[in-house]
Amino acid sequence: MIGTIYINGVIGEDTTLLDVIKQVKAQSTAESFLVKIDSQGGYVDAGNDIYNYLKNLSQSITTYTTRAFSIASVIFMSGDNRIIPDGAENALMIHLPWLEAAGDYSTLNEYLGELKATEDKLVKFYAEALDLDRDTIHSLLKSETYLSATQAIELGFATQLQVAPKAVAILHNNKEEKEESLMNKLNKKIDALMNLVSKKIKAELVLQDATGVELVFPDLDATEVPAVDAKIVVDNKPAEGEFIMPDGSTIIASNGEVKEIKTAEEEVSADEPEIEEPLAKAEIIKEVAKWEMDVINTSFEIGEILKYTYEEVEYSCGAGEYELADGSRIIADADGKIVEVKPAVAEPETDEASIDEPVESNNEDIEKLLGIIEVMAQKNVELETKFQALAKNIGSDFNPTNTKENKTNVKASTENTSRAFQILTSKIK
């Protein structure tokens, strides 16, 4: 970005060092500065201060003038590149410093000493800047010399003449694009930026679009932001059309006013309407232990938002655990974002028949099984009787009352078997 600094009127009154500093600070992103001078001169100390400040800036400086008289010519010399319009008459004027003073002899004598010192510094400055001897410089200053654009180039005050544009008819070959030098582009910008400003400096807002065209907002300060209805000028004429800015936004102007400002996100081609992709219905999901709903999601990954529609309005599901058709479950937070996916758990296989399904069985087989169990129980009783007789023969303290308990146990076994038979037979119905 190229910043612009205006130096006008009387140096030290209409333009001060503080004015120049404010203009530079208001354009902190500028990579270089164009200093436009239109001044009849002014106070020597103020002019020297402005010159030193500009020379010490880290950005490159280009100065441009149609009138830089007296100490303003010193400020003009601060530019690395110094431009004067071709054909300009009396573009520069140099002379010996002078003063207005009143006082007694000693006071006036002191002033004269300061005046002489200022004169010597001015002669030395021009002699070193122009590579001329001091006597020649002193003669030019003493003669109050006015310089045209051509003379300024010949003496070394200016480094370049700005050539006035000429109307020509040229057949352009679109296949051959000529590259313009940086200085030629700068010349065109200078033409576009030349505005007759008042004696008081106004740091108006100047922006560049993506192609380098400078947009001037005369009613806005350099620190303000353009808005709708703001006045806008391009090439000294009311702006008209669309201007794409470096940040991707677009300023639309008509009759020198901003009609609309589109951000980069709002830019949609007029010839290519925005295409809305249809939302694929995923499936019906069920919030565990609550209800079922249709969702529009086509996938269920962590971080995705679980959404559904109601009366053509899209909503996010709330926090909860939802079951998919395949048995897997997803857990969403309050914003509907999926935070966990639980895979479906396969139910373990079992040999037991379902309660809802009838058991195919044969009553005869069951009766045979029960008969075997009863025979085994009887055998058990016979064995207990033999154990009791054996215990008596060997003098054991075996308590025959245990027989009752044993019979009870046998009976319990029989009852248990009967209960099993009831359960089995109940499933045959």
Automatic annotation (TrEMBL):
Give the keywords, sorted: Hydrolase, Protease, Serine protease
For this protein, the record's Pfam families field holds: CLP_protease (PF00574)
Output the CDD domains linked to this UniProt entry.
S14_ClpP_1
Q: Which SUPFAM superfamilies match?
A: ClpP/crotonase (SSF52096)
User: What is this protein called in UniProt?
Assistant: Clp protease ClpP
- Provide the species name: Flavobacterium hibernum
Q: What is the lineage of its organism?
A: Bacteria, Pseudomonadati, Bacteroidota, Flavobacteriia, Flavobacteriales
